[in-house]
């Protein structure tokens, strides 16, 4: 099942919005408090590895178990990286049951990738990456490249990148069904050193999704203005082309002694008539220097609906050319609150071993969706990371 097409809010917007363990995985060295927590430039150790278990559950019948592992090794001017993840998904969401399947679905998705960084000279580095994701009716391959340079006495870092993904969307039980989707995304980031312990990022992303973007399982009910119950249901149809862009900024750094904070503001717009904005913050405290770090997250997100989204399509017997029952394409509000704790332990020849535990509570509101007006989710992560 193509989860991205059927329930994007669970594993799409949530994965981007939450400060997951991956965001904090960049470094576990002795200067961890700043770089570890706020995704700054990575500290290059010779070898590092981590494994994590993430568990998601909500009150709408969706649960996901996500074990993952990552590893990195420095070889001269090269840094090599690899990662793998398995998502075990069970979904019986109200709107899925009403619009797609009477029983919901279970799915197993495997994904991963590898990549490398080459440091040409101080202040110049290039990155290449490959990623894949596969499940019973969805296969995606992606490649990416970026280049960073440091200028103005290395106080400014400019990074430009491009990613491309090729997706083959299928339908369970129908071997003849195959649709393609191509995703392009470019990005530009300007990182500025503001002081001895603070950084500012300004970023712009822009892209295009071209190809099949409907769900092959979702049907849209049609009504008349006088009918209470749907008179028929027809397959979902959304545009084949979606142009999108976002712009935002982030400030991160030490605010006092052992206190660290970050704040991010982001705006989004696309050619489907959707616009969105989000505000996120994180505060962390070194309970014991280089040993215990605790912190809290908060995030708010708001989006308008796509121009063709309707709570009810009162067009029967005519079928609107564009129609969707996807709650993620309607107006939506989300609020996230979370907490995390990291315990850093020197062990033998290892520079550090880090144990991390994070929990986020996530509340989503769909004011114009007929089957589901809100849901509450909890996502917990346990991680073990090693560095030498």
Task: Walk me through the topology.
Blueprint: H1 3-6, H2 8-17, H3 32-38, E1 47-58, E2 62-75, E3 78-91, H4 94-99, E4 105-121, E5 124-135, E6 138-151, E7 156-171, E8 174-195, E9 198-211, E10 219-222, E11 232-235, E12 241-256, E13 259-270, E14 275-288, E15 292-303, E16 332-347, E17 350-365, E18 374-387
Antiparallel strand pairs: 1-2, 1-18, 2-3, 3-4, 4-5, 5-6, 6-7, 7-8, 8-9, 9-12, 10-11, 12-13, 13-14, 14-15, 15-16, 16-17, 17-18
Question: Could you please describe the fold and organization of this structure?
Answer:
By secondary structure, this protein is mainly beta. The chain has a single domain (3-347, 364-387), classed as monomeric porin ompg (Porin, Beta Barrel), CATH 2.40.160. It is built from four helices and 18 strands. The strands form two sheets. A 16-stranded antiparallel beta barrel has the order 1-2-3-4-5-6-7-8-9-12-13-14-15-16-17-18. Strands 10-11 form a two-stranded antiparallel sheet. The two termini are 40 Å apart.
Computed CA radius of gyration, to the nearest angstrom: 22 Å
Query: Helix and strand succession?
Result: HHHEEEHEEEEEEEEEEEEEEE
CATH topology: Porin
Q: List the uncertain runs.
A: 1-44, 98-102
Tell me the count of domains: 1
CATH homologous superfamily placement: monomeric porin ompg
Number of strands: 18
Q: Which descriptor suits the 3D outline? A: globular
Order of strands in the sheet with most strands? 1-2-3-4-5-6-7-8-9-12-13-14-15-16-17-18
Average pLDDT: 86
CATH class category label = Mainly Beta
**Secondary structure category:** mainly beta
Per CATH, which architecture?
Answer: Beta Barrel
Major sheet details: 16 strands, antiparallel, barrel
* Count of helical regions: 4
* Strand residue content: over 45%
End-to-end CA span = 40 Å
Query: What is the share of helical residues?
Result: under 10%
């Amino acid at each position: 099942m193509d989860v991205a097409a059927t329930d994007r809010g669970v594993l799409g917007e949530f994965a981007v919005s939450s400060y997951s363990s991956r965001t904090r995985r960049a470094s576990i060295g002795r200067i961890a408090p700043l770089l570890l927590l706020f995704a700054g430039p990575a500290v290059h150790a010779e070898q590092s590895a981590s494994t994590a278990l993430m568990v998601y559950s909500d009150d709408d019948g969706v649960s996901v178990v996500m074990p993952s592992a990552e590893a990195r090794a420095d070889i001269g001017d090269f840094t090599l990286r690899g990662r793998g993840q398995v998502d075990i998904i069970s979904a019986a969401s109200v709107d899925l049951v009403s619009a797609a399947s009477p029983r919901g679905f279970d799915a197993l998705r495997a994904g991963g990738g590898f990549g490398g960084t080459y440091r040409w000279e101080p202040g110049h580095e290039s990155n290449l990456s490959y990623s894949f994701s596969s499940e019973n009716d969805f296969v995606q391959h992606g490649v990416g490249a970026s280049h960073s340079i440091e200028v103005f006495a290395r106080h400014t870092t400019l990074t430009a990148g491009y990613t491309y993904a090729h997706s083959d969307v299928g339908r369970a039980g129908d071997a003849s069904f195959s649709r393609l989707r191509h995703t392009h995304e470019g990005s530009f980031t300007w990182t500025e050193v503001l002081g001895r312990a603070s950084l500012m990022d300004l970023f712009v992303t822009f892209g295009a999704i071209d190809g099949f973007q409907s769900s092959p399982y979702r049907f849209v009910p049609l009504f008349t203005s006088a009918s209470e119950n749907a008179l028929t249901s027809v397959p979902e149809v959304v545009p084949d082309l979606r142009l999108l862009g976002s712009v935002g900024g982030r400030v991160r750094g030490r605010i006092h002694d052992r206190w660290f904070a970050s704040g991010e503001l982001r705006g989004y717009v696309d050619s489907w008539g959707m616009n969105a904005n989000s505000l996120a913050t994180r505060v962390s405290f070194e309970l014991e220097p280089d040993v215990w770090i605790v912190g809290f997250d908060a995030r708010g997100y708001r989006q308008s609906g796509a121009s063709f989204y309707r709570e009810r399509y009162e067009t029967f017997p005519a079928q609107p050319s564009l129609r969707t029952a996807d709650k993620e394409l309607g107006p939506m509000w989300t609020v996230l609150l979370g907490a995390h704790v990291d315990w850093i332990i020197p062990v033998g020849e290892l520079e550090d071993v880090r144990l991390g535990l994070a929990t986020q509570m996530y509340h989503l509101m769909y004011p114009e969706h007929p089957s589901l007006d809100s849901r509450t989710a909890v996502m917990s992560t346990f991680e073990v990371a090693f560095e030498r």
